[in-house]
Amino acid sequence: MADDEDQLRAWMMRAQDGNSQATAALLSALAPRLRAFFRGKGANREDSEDLVQETLIAIYTKRAMFDPNQRLLGWAYAIARYRMIDRWRHTKRRGHEMPIEDFEHSLVAQSHEAGDPLRDISRLLATLPEKQRTAIELVKIKDMSINDASAATGLSASDIKICIHRGLKSLMALVGDADAFNPALVPIASRDTLS
Amino acid sequence: MTTDELIAILARSPEPAHPRRFKVHFALALVAGLAIGLLALKLTLGFRPDIGMAAPVVALKVGLSALIATFAGGLAIELAKPQTVGNEQTKRAASPLIALALGSVAIGAITVFATNPEQRFEAFTGGGFPWCLVAIPIMGLPTALLLLWVLKDAAPTRLMLAGASVGALSGGIGAIIYATFCSLDSIAFVTIWYVAGIGISSALGAWLGAKVLHW
Description:
The complex is a heterodimer.
Chain A: H1 2-16, H2 20-40, H3 45-61, H4 72-94, H5 100-113, H6 116-126, H7 130-141, H8 146-153, H9 157-178, H10 188-194
Chain B: H1 3-11, H2 21-43, H3 55-79, H4 88-114, H5 117-125, H6 132-153, H7 159-179, H8 187-212
Helix pairs in contact in B: 2-6, 2-7, 3-4, 3-7, 4-5, 4-8, 6-7, 6-8, 7-8
C-alpha cells in the first residue's frame, strides 16, 4: 500500500509538471479505486461510473491543489466524497440523470441517420451556453482534436475539455426531458432505466 | 464516453499546474482586502484622532487581531485543499486558533471580575453597545469576499469549515482596521468584544461558505 502511495504521488508530481504519460497513469490507476469507492457507498453501476468520471476531471483540473505533504489517496478520496455529496444535492433538485455513455451512444446513432434527429440534437445544443455548444460541436461532432478546437476558438485546451464535460452533462438532463416527446433520441438500452 | 476515453482526453497535452498560484492569490486578496478596508475607514469614520499618541495601545490591539488572523489564515489554507473528515492536520491547524480565542476571552473575564463592582459593567461593555460586534465583520467584508473568490477556485471539500476559517481571518483583518478607529482601550473590552466580533464574522463566513464555495 505504501508503494502504491509513493508511485501515485510520483505520477502526480509529474502530472503537475504537465507530463502526459504520468497523467494518464495516475488517472488510470485511480479509476478502479474510485469505482470501488462509489460502489462501496451504494451507487449503482451507471451512477458510480459517472461519479468516477466527474472525480477524474476534478482530480485533473484541481491537480495544482495537491500538496506533497498530503497523502495522495486521501486527497483523491476527499474529492470523490465531495463529488458524491454534490451529486446528491443536484439529483435531489433535478430528478433522475442519464449516464454520459448513453448520451454518447445517442449522439453517434443520430449522426448516422441524419435528417430530423440531427435537427433535434442541434435544437438541444442550441439551448447550451455558446462556449459549451461550440466545444461539443467541434470535438464531438466534427471530430476535431482538442488542440485544433482550442486553436479554432481561442479557448485553452483544458477550457475546451471542461466545456465539453459540462455541456454533455447539461445535455443529458435535457435529453431526459426531451425523452417524453421524442423517444428516438434515447438509446433502447437506457429506456428501461429511465422509466 | 467511456472512462478510458475520458482519461485519454484529459491526459492529452496537459498544461503544467501551478501549485504556488493559490497562495499568491490568497496573499493578494489579503493585502487588497486590508487596503480597501483601511481606505473605506479613512473616507468614512476616519482614524481615531489621537492615533499618534495612542500608537502603543493601537499596536497591541492590532497585534492581537493579527495573531488571530495568522492562525485563521493557516487553517484557511489547509481547508482550501481537499480534506477528509477528522483530518489530523486540520485539527492541528485549528487548535491554536481556538486556544487563542478562549484564552483571550478568559483574560477579559478575569479583568472584568478584578474591576471593582461599580465600574465592572462599564469595563465590560465600554459604556454602551459594543459596536465592534457589527463593525469588525463589516470592515472584514471586502477581505472575506475576495478570499471566498480565491477559495472557490481552489478545492475546498469542507465548505462550511472553510467558510468559517475565511470568516475568522477576515474578522481578524476587520479587527486590525477597527483598532485604528476605536478609542476604547480597556483590556476587558478588547479581549472579549474583538474576539466576539471575529467570532460573528466566522459564523457569517461558515454560512456564506456553504452557499458559495461549490465547485
